[in-house]
Design a protein that fits this description.
Layout (H helix, E strand, L loop, with lengths): L4 H4 L5 E6 L3 H4 L1 H7 L2 E4 L5 H4 L9 H12 L3 E8 L19 H18 L4 E8 L14 H6 L2 H13 L4 E6 L5 H16 L6 E4 L2 E3 L5 H12 L4 E10 L17 H18 L4 E6 L32 H9 L3
Helix pairs in contact: 6-8, 9-10, 11-12
The chain binds ligand G3I.
The site of ligand G3I has 9 residues, from loops.
Length: 331
């Protein structure tokens, strides 16, 4: 049988996969064999665990943590503060008006205490704040209810609350388009200012939703260098390498075109060669899924289109990209 992915990179970084209650069943064998870390794809997000003020729903999150225990895997927590998949009640007062800043931050503290506290023996790292940087334009922060109500303070507060809830957990800022020079510099600016304020932050998550064309290796390298210069550890948190450009809306392919998977293998090899160069600062590489039978990309940005982004195919068999990585690792 083929070598295990997690063993290939054992001396370099953890190898993770995003999972959900369906994939821990349909992909159990593959996950257990090749990965030593998981992230909940949706099940630990605010709306999933805390749909109403007085109601926490941990069933699915607990199932994923139990799966990790069963297989001796690490768990990353995802995510505490986000503009998306966050319950509406959080931002409302009892008359359906907008809540005050003080109440919003107290709700965040209480949520964080409960969720991070619950998993303090299982989750070693949290994406505390997710995607608050604006993709385009001059402004640093993305418009959101968080920002409207609390101003930029909510970011530092979120890290303080998470640190209080579990002083041992590694706390990450996580974002996408992280290798785009403009956004990279904004992320750097935000995190640098958090560090200067003494905020407990330990790492930057590079989501790494990439494709065969973008970003360039030079931009990836420059992003790693810049973030690492802050003295923090880095993790790739949501890696996938689609065969389509983001702008490409074609829907005609029912299987990859000739050459696509070979090209993907070259890109994966080049990426992992680069990541290995930075093994001192990169502590984990998590894919946003495990095999091509299930990926969020098959519904985004085009509905019902296969993207074939992973190292394993729809039947969980190794793809050319996997073979290249095995060779790179000398296995
Ligand atoms: O749970 C409902 C279900 O009840 C309903 O019937 C169904 C109909 O559409 O929707 C289900 O919710 C979906 C949810 O995933 C759970 O499957 C949402 O529509 C769908 O939008 C949601 O997508 C998730 C997305 O985050 C939301 O922004 C993806 O699964 C998840 O992979 C994706 O993950 C994000 C990371 O958290 C942050 N970084 C980007 C990454 C990819 O977008």
């Amino acid at each position: 049988a083929e070598a295990a992915l997690k063993d290939m990179f054992e001396a370099d970084f953890r190898i993770g996969a995003a999972v959900n209650p369906r994939t821990i069943r349909s992909q159990e064998h593959l996950l257990a064999r090749h990965f030593n870390s998981i992230t909940a794809e949706n099940e630990m997000k605010f709306v999933s665990v805390h749909p109403e003020e007085e109601t926490y729903t941990f069933d699915e999150a607990d199932q994923l943590v139990a799966f990790a225990r069963k297989h001796g895997m690490a768990v990353r927590g995802h995510t505490l503060v986000w503009h998306n998949q966050t319950s509406d009640w959080l931002f409302k007062d009892s008359h359906d008006g907008t809540v005050s800043k003080a109440v919003l931050l107290e709700r965040l503290r209480s949520h964080t205490q409960t969720v991070v506290g619950r998993y303090k023996n299982d989750i070693y790292a949290w994406d505390v704040v997710n995607e608050v940087i604006a993709d385009e334009g001059e402004s640093l922060l993305r418009p959101s209810k968080w920002l409207d109500i609390a101003g930029p303070d909510f970011i530092a507060k979120a890290f303080h609350f998470a640190h209080e809830a579990d002083p041992k957990a590694l706390l990450f800022y996580n974002d996408y388009n992280e290798s785009n020079p403009l956004k990279r510099d904004k992320i750097y600016t935000l995190v640098k200012s958090l560090l200067e304020q003494g905020v407990p932050i330990h790492g930057i998550g590079l989501q790494a939703h990439w494709n065969l064309f973008d970003p360039s290796l030079d931009d990836i390298r420059a992003a790693i260098e810049k973030y690492a210069s802050l003295g923090l550890q880095l993790q790739l948190t949501e890696l996938d390498i689609s065969v389509f450009r983001f702008e490409d809306k074609r829907t005609d392919l029912v299987k990859p075109e000739p050459g696509m998977l070979e090209r993907q293998a070259e890109v994966y090899e080049a990426v992992f060669r680069l990541l290995k160069e930075y093994r001192e600062v990169i502590s984990a590489v998590t894919f946003w899924g495990a095999a091509d039978d299930y990926t969020w990309l098959d519904d985004f940005p085009v509905r019902d289109r296969k993207n074939w982004p992973f190292l394993f195919d729809e039947r969980h068999q190794p793809k050319p990209a996997f073979d290249r990585l095995a060779k790179l690792a000398g296995k």
